[in-house]
Amino acid sequence: MNSRPESAVAPVITIDGPSGSGKGTLSRLLARRLGWHWLDSGALYRLLALAATQDNIALEDVAALVDKAHQLDIRFEESADGEPQIYLSGQRVTDALRTEQCGKVASKVAAIPAVRAALLDRQRAFRQLPGLVADGRDMGTVVFPDADLKIFLDASIEERANRRQKQLKKQGLDISMGDLFQEISARDQRDMNRAVSPLRPAEDAKHIDCSAMTIDEMLETALGFVREKGWVAAG
Ligand code: DC
Questions:
Q1: CA-to-CA distance for 98 and 184, rounded, in angstroms?
Q2: Which pLDDT score is estimated for 170?
Q3: Ligand 1 pocket check for 41: Cβ under 6 Å
Q4: Which residue has the higher pLDDT, 29 or 2?
Q5: How far is the CA of 123 from the centre of ligand 1 (A)?
Q6: From edge to edge, which strands make up the β-sheet containing 74-78?
């Protein structure tokens, strides 16, 4: 008989994958469905990128970036319509974080080992009862290697460029597919080839290729894995 006491450590579901694969949407829906906490780890890198840009911190100044990472005054909230809102030093920066420029700087700061180390504890602090759904690149490999369920969500570059173009159109921006394709490929290369925490599936991750899936289908596939764990009722 196993006499180990019940662990009070909150369960974690990690959802890793490349930019634009839909893991943000999936992880948010899953967290809501389960009533668990949600970590958008990419937002932390974007917040640091935005703060560094605002304070004119050079990307070569690692000590200043690490300092900034420790000091970031951030708040995540859900607005009345259920949309996540992000605040930096009391200012709402949700839209500013989503720009291509901010994403580009975030990808560069995310390649710096000391920056990643500085953000580790902040990410782990989100692990609270009743559970956490964590969205990122290295959630299952580095930040929560003991996660209870690891999902790797992927989609073709064409499909991701297509989705991004639609998103940008809604914001009144018309960017060509060619430019988006290049931008996304370059970011994938940076994320996959960096020395520290490169983007790769954890060995024990369940893969979902959602190139041809609707959001509902993605959620259903993930819920199938979750049901196997007994966290939601079957059906
Ligand atoms: O998911 P996103 O596009 O918001 O992430 C922004 C950048 O941060 C992206 O270039 C990858 C990086 N990132 C990371 O290196 N590790 C994470 N856990 C999350 C994001």
A1: 14
A2: 86
A3: yes
A4: 29
A5: 13
A6: 74-78, 84-88, 91-92
Ligand 1 atom at shortest distance from the alpha carbon of 23: 1
Q: Which residue has the tokens 């914001």?
A: 171
Q: Could you tell me the distance, in angstroms and rounded to a whole number, from the CA of residue 5 to the centre of ligand 1? A: 36
Rounded Cα distance between 110 and 118, Å, is: 11
Q: Is residue 38 classed exposed, middle or buried when 0-12, 13-18 and 19+ CB atoms within 10 A define those classes?
A: buried
pLDDT on residue 158: 94
Name every residue whose Cβ is closer than 8 Å to that of residue 184 and which is 6 or more positions away in sequence: 18, 19, 20, 157, 160, 161, 164
| Mutation pick for ligand 1 pocket among 15, 21, 107 (CB with most ligand atoms within 8 Å) | 107
Note the pLDDT of residue 5: 44
pTM: 0.90
Measuring from atom 20 of ligand 1, which residue has the nearest CA? 42
Report phi then psi at 53, rounded to 5. Answer: -65, -45
| Interval between CA 136 and ligand 1 midpoint (Å) | 6
Domains and CATH numbers, the chain: 12-225 (3.40.50.300)
Residue 190 has pLDDT above 90, yes or no: no
pLDDT of residue 231: 83
**Is 70 exceeded by the pLDDT of residue 7?**
no
Tokens of 43: 């937002």
- Rounded alpha-carbon distances, angstroms, from residue 39 to 4, 6, 85: 29, 25, 13
* Rg value, the chain, Cα: 18
